[in-house]
Design brief:
Elements lengths: L2 E2 L26 H18 L9 E4 L6 E3 L6 H8 L10 H12 L12 E3 L1 H10 L6 E4 L4 H14 L5 E4 L5 H8 L7 E5 L11 H17 L5 E9 L2 H8 L10 H10 L5 E7 L1 E8 L2 H21 L7 E4 L1
Parallel strand pairs: 1-6, 2-5, 2-7, 5-6, 7-8
Antiparallel strand pairs: 3-4, 8-10, 9-10, 9-11
Length: 322
């Protein structure tokens, strides 16, 4: 395997590395992540069952994080994680549980019982592990801005021993910029995960929204052979803004939700929309070839429903083609 990750000491010392500037240390494994990572895994699984992706899928993940997160025993996230991971040793019909177990076992941190649960594998680790379990020369390229977090990601993926997939932890200081500059040259074998946090209506975030309009514009210009794109939206607890964006009753903001949606529709491009409100308001777009939309949406629904039922959530996860 051609691997470009950094070195590290033997043993479990790497699990004690710190990256205090990584704000996702307090968010990883929350309600948004559980659905988001289920969607990521289900999309990858569905693509790997069809040509040309079964032979060669290239994943690009921005804001890749550190790969593995410590979850303190008293943290509010622990309740959902215990519900997700019960039973520890057996399949429970939930995709994310099974992949968490596979990744954490590979990293030697999976517990023997729920009382020992203390880690959450992030999307960079989950996606790498999933690609490594499939045939074909697959590749994952990971972008992370924070140097300390990027160093820990190097160490985590080394310990994963995903020997059948090409892994590149990029040294690019700005993954979003790199994606914006290159996505117009990538084709439908490239799958891009973008997780830009909440920046959808504030004036101070206009430059970031402009970049996302640039990315979506490049995808529309490439037309049917464009890169595949999964975009994550969160409005936090700003439910009025979320409702207005989701139902197209707000005034459109340049580069915001409605603007990008109209850009896609104006180019006769549709996408799978996943929306849910679990404490906070979230949505995701999955932009794939029209020929695969129905099959991927159909595959997503039972995975999302199984996760909802496992976590005993009363509100649904809507999966629809928009």
């Amino acid at each position: 395997m051609r691997r470009r990750t950094g070195g590290g000491k033997e043993g479990q010392i790497w699990t004690n590395c710190h990256d205090p500037h990584n704000r996702q240390n307090k968010n990883a494994g929350n309600a948004g992540d559980l659905v988001k990572h289920t969607v990521y895994l289900a999309v990858i699984d569905s693509l790997l069952q069809a040509d040309p992706w079964r032979d060669h899928l290239r994943v690009h993940e921005c804001h890749a994080g550190r790969g593995l997160y410590r979850i303190p025993s008293g943290d509010r996230r622990m309740r959902s994680l215990k519900m997700l991971c019960d039973p520890v040793d057996n399949d429970n019909g939930v995709l994310l549980h099974d992949q968490q177990r596979a990744a954490q076992r590979a990293l030697r941190v999976w517990p023997s019982d729920l009382g020992g649960l203390g880690w959450y594998a992030g999307s960079a680790t989950l996606n790498t592990q999933r690609l490594a379990s499939a045939s074909g020369p697959h590749r994952i390229e990971l972008y992370e801005r924070e140097p300390d977090t990027r160093r820990i990601l190097h160490l985590t993926l080394e310990k994963l021993h995903a020997e059948t997939v090409e892994v590149c932890v990029s040294a690019e200081p700005d993954g979003e910029r790199y994606i914006a500059d290159n996505i117009g040259r990538w084709d439908s074998r490239d799958l891009v995960f973008l997780d830009p946090f909440a920046m959808w209506r504030q004036e101070c975030h206009q430059a970031q929204r402009d970049r996302y309009r640039e990315i979506v514009g490049a995808v529309t210009e490439r037309a049917k052979d464009s890169a595949l794109l999964v975009l994550f939206w969160t409005w936090g607890q700003n439910f009025p803004a979320a409702e207005g964006d989701l139902h197209d009753t707000n005034d459109a903001v340049p580069g915001g939700y409605q603007d990008l949606r109209r850009l896609l529709h104006g180019s006769r491009r549709h996408f799978i929309r996943i929306a849910w409100r679990w404490e906070l308001q979230f949505a995701m777009w999955v932009l794939v070839p029209e020929s695969r939309q129905y099959d991927i949406a159909t595959a997503l629904r039972p995975h999302c429903r199984a996760l909802r039922d496992r976590l005993q959530r009363h509100s649904d996860i809507e999966v629809a083609i928009d």
